[in-house]
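Write out the 3D structure for:
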Amino acid sequence: MIAVAQLLRSPLAYVAVEQTGAVVCLAVAHADPHHGANAAQIGVLVEDRHQGQGIGRELLAQVSGAALVAGYDELISYPGESLMTAAAFMANTGSTRIVSDREISHLHTTIPPVAALGIGAVRERLAG
């Protein structure tokens, strides 16, 4: 619980909640010390019964755009599940490649400039 509390304090943390206040999805990005100053580690977690509804993709778009505006140009993810499933998910944001590492395989996703269009009011204005 302490780790989640720390993540929620990140300036690049997004939470989706139901009307009841129950948390449905959490997406967060923060500096990844293993990949340089321009790389942010990203995590997206969707509550089981809300998966497949596009909520994770929406928050991924938000956090990716915010990470780009904050100066990051690459997202690093360490998926807990299938690398291929996570790679397909991350490909919604940008060009994604799998890196096989001796310690842990992970994903590198380049954030394209258009990701900034996925941020809140900018996105709403463009859609309207």
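The CA atoms of residues 117 and 123 lie 5 Å apart.
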